[in-house]
Amino acid sequence: MPALTMESQLAAVTEERDRLSAEKAELEDRVLRSRAEFDNARRRFERERSDFLQFAAMDLVKGILPVLDDFERALKVETADRNYAKGVELIYQRLYDTLKKMGLEPLEAAGKKFDPNLHQAVERVETEEVDDQAILDEFQRGYNFRGKLLRPAMVRVAVKP
């Protein structure tokens, strides 16, 4: 009889060991999953934070664009006071350089083919002198900000009669 008891004790210990091993494996799996969920939540938070900061910067730059436009118009005006004109030009250049460092990129429109994704046609001119849908003139410059369209260029477009 003692052999049977020894076998039953061995079976009980083996069963307990197997149960504890399974419980340990389950706990390790839960720890790994929790760690992965935490890492994913941290990455998602960082991505959302980055997107928010980029959106906030984009909104700020979009608000400053009219000031940049005003400086460009002021630079086109002829004035007798050369020092004044030079001062306006320096302020414009400093503002433009700062915005460019932040990620502002001007869209080149003059001479290009009209693209409704990048340009807003405010006037169509019938002409045979240039190709159909060629941009003749730019009324207001368009900009990208960090690879995204911030403002389309307002342009005059040639159309065939």
Give the structure's gist in a few sentences.
The protein has two helices and six strands.
Query: What strand order characterises the main sheet?
Result: 1-4-5
Q: Classify the beta-strand content into a percent band.
A: 15-25%
Low-confidence segments, given as residue ranges, are none
Give the SSE string. Answer: HHEEEEEE
How far is it from the N-terminal to the C-terminal residue, by CA? 111 Å
Largest sheet: 3 strands, antiparallel
- The helix content, as a percent range, equals 55-70%
| Shape descriptor | elongated
Q: Would you tell me the overall average pLDDT?
A: 90
Number of strands: 6
Query: Cα-atom Rg, whole angstroms?
Result: 34 Å
Compute the number of helices: 2
In terms of structural class, how would the helical and strand content be classed? alpha+beta
Keyword list:
2 helices; three-stranded mixed sheet; three-stranded antiparallel sheet; 161 residues; single chain; 60% helix; 6 strands; alpha+beta
Structure description:
The protein has a three-stranded antiparallel sheet. It is of the alpha+beta class and 161 residues long. It starts with a helix and ends with a strand. The radius of gyration is 34 Å and the shape is elongated. The protein is built from two helices and six strands; from the N terminus they run ααββββββ. The protein is 60% helix and 19% strand. The chain has helices at residues 2-76, 82-102, and strands at 104-106, 119-126, 135-140, 143-145, 148-151, 153-159. Strand 4 (143-145) and strand 5 (148-151) form a beta hairpin. The mean pLDDT is 90.
